[in-house]
Structure formats: structure tokens, C-alpha cells
Amino acid sequence: MNERDIAKKITQHLNYGANQLDRPMLERLQSARKQALAAHVSPQRVFGIAMAGHGDAHSGHHGHMHFSLRFWISFAVLLLGLLVAFNWTEINGDETDDVDATMLSGELPVHAFLDSDFKSWLDQSSRR
């Protein structure tokens, strides 16, 4: 039995049940259906993040604006933090890059690699 057969049987049972109801009951059902359709509000798309426990029933439009403002302020602070961190590594990474470039270019004397004071030599050369 496929989905169409199941849907057909369900439809037959519902039609049979609806035909067994008396006229006043059908009118009340139709009235209730009209009221439900009149009260139905189509869903609207809203940009934002859903938070648990923050329903639309009590927050209203003002609550949404407050959340939107908090979201954008948090986003701006996060973006500013990322820019500062990126620039910090750019500024402080230059001296390490110079030492690496010097080592890779072979400009260091061989005894500098064997010397126990290699770190002090690096510190002195980085100050120039």
C-alpha cells in the first residue's frame, strides 16, 4: 500500500464521518473554521537570532529592536577585536620575520649556530 492509497482511505473515512454529523454541528464547525482562518496571521521573516525563552507574545516590536541593537553592538566589538588582533600580529611579527629571513638567507656566520650565546646575538641583531 503506497501513500496515495492511504490518503484515499483516510479521505473516505473523513467524508463518511462528516456525512454522519447533523446540520447544527456542521454549522458550528464551519463557523469555528472561519474564525480560525480570520485569526490566522501569516508568518513573517525577521532577521535575527532566535533565543530560547524569548517568545514574540510578550516582547513585541520594541523587544526585537532591543535585541537587534545588542546584536549589532556585539558584532562591531567582535570585528574591532579581530582587527586589533590582526594588526597586533602584523606589528609584532616583523622582528621575528627579519630574524627568520636572515637565517634563511645564509647571512649568519656558522659559529653563530654553534655558539651558546646564540639568543643574545639574535637579541643584539634585532635591536639594529
Please provide a written account of the structure:
This protein is an all-alpha fold and 128 residues long. It has a domain of 40 residues. It is built from six helices and no strands. The longest helix has 37 residues. The radius of gyration is 37 Å and the shape is elongated. The N and C termini lie far apart (86 Å). The mean pLDDT is 77.
Largest sheet data? none
Compute the separation of the termini in Å.
Answer: 86 Å
Q: Count the strands?
A: 0
Low-confidence region ranges: none
* Basic shape: elongated
Average per-residue pLDDT, rounded, comes to 77
H/E topology pattern: HHHHHH
Helical percentage: over 70%
- Give the count of helical stretches: 6
- Rg computed from alpha carbons, rounded to a whole number of angstroms: 37 Å
* Overall SS class: mainly alpha
Strand portion: under 5%
